[in-house]
């Protein structure tokens, strides 16, 4: 597929969806920027075509969402409870933490298959045979990186991976996006993104409760102020781990993802680490400043080392801070999840900082304030 401009992408989306109302503005600059960035990446031709098609499909999903709202105006009155947001640097146990919280039936969490195709909103009784869910389960069964990331097709997924693209504010971490795109993304106003985020959650919960949302995503660290402004009742579970272990792991995972999508020989492995370090150090700087403005009383800290060493005790303490009852059933479920997903069960994710142009000292210096504050 040749590169698209914004007008062409929107025209294709309209043809797919059969409607022309994209809803609230705010997505237009992001659309132009992502379409300008993609052709500059060293992607394999089929990956480039898929990336362009994904942008068109995200626009088509916006059109479908707006048409669903037009046909079901009662959705506008929907109420989002919470949410409870699990945040923290990537590779700090956010996936395990949200996975164990998701065992609690009081929470509603986004699945990737419903974010990728949100219309029609899912119905609980239909989910075992919902074609969207069935197809995604099959795709996850062939997952090639289980040692690097826990994957559950019916479990919670990163909401910003599925929802931010609808407002054209995706981070696109699976692709080696150019610096000018990342600079724009870091500095962009995400007010429209979180407003649309709420719109999508209201649609998804409309025929399938509960309405107390459990969310997770490291990229929220860049936008905690905007998230809190959109969701004034939100609370935050912040996961912690030594950045000197985190950043090389991030670099390794991203290099794996980028290598699978780019032409051979196009990537500089040693550059992956410094890029990841600069990006996430800036995210942490912004998150710590936002936390001070939002208020410490809305944050609960969880150390990855405690989740690994004593998950039941750690979650009992977390539930006490939340003011939720930690039942015997939940205690058993948390213990079972921890056993099934213990480190090494799916193989070892092996890497060294030096492979990715990093040293422990450089990483810890970049995160000095964070490390000192949280005893890492």
Give a quick set of tags describing it:
376 residues; alpha/beta; Rossmann fold; four-stranded parallel beta sheet; 53% helix
Fold and architecture overview:
The structure is a single chain. The chain has 376 residues and is of the alpha/beta class. The chain has a single domain (81-374), classed as 3-Layer(aba) Sandwich (Rossmann fold). The protein has 17 helices and four strands. It has helices at 6-17, 28-37, 45-71, 94-101, 112-116, 131-141, 159-163, 179-187, 191-205, 224-230, 243-261, 269-294, 304-309, 311-322, 328-340, 360-366, 368-374; strands at residues 81-87, 212-216, 235-240, 299-303. It has a four-stranded parallel β-sheet.
CATH-defined topology: Rossmann fold
Topology as a string of helices (H) and strands (E): HHHEHHHHHHEHEHHEHHHHH
Number of structural domains: 1
Uncertain runs? 145-149
Percent range for β-strand residues: 5-15%
Question: Could you give a short description of this structure?
Answer:
By secondary structure, the protein is of the alpha/beta class. The chain is built from 17 helices and 4 strands.
List the helices and strands and how they pair.
Elements lengths: L5 H12 L10 H10 L7 H27 L9 E7 L6 H8 L10 H5 L14 H11 L17 H5 L15 H9 L3 H15 L6 E5 L7 H7 L4 E6 L2 H19 L7 H26 L4 E5 H6 L1 H12 L5 H13 L19 H7 L1 H7 L2
Parallel strand pairs: 1-2, 1-3, 3-4
